[in-house]
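Comment on both lines for my students:
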Amino acid sequence: MSSLKIEIKIRLRSDDLRLLEAFHKATLPDDTNPPANFTITHEIRGNEAVFTIAYSGPTSPEAVRTAASTSEEILRLYKMLLEAIS
């Protein structure tokens, strides 16, 4: 068994909590249905969204690819949200 942890912190200059809450709701399905052996948590701290993608299982290229693609998806969703409000 091995473990892998990726933490993504996204900070907004704006203190618009509604924006962070909207993003949280948009990513909630990923939090509740993560891939096997993965845990995804998302919390809001002030004007910062913090995502943690944790993996606990056998080391494999597939696990690393899944963690990377999950990270890319979170960043893609956030980029779309920011473009929509710009």
The longest helix spans residues 61-85. Helices lie at 17-32, 61-85. DSSP finds two helices and three strands in the chain.
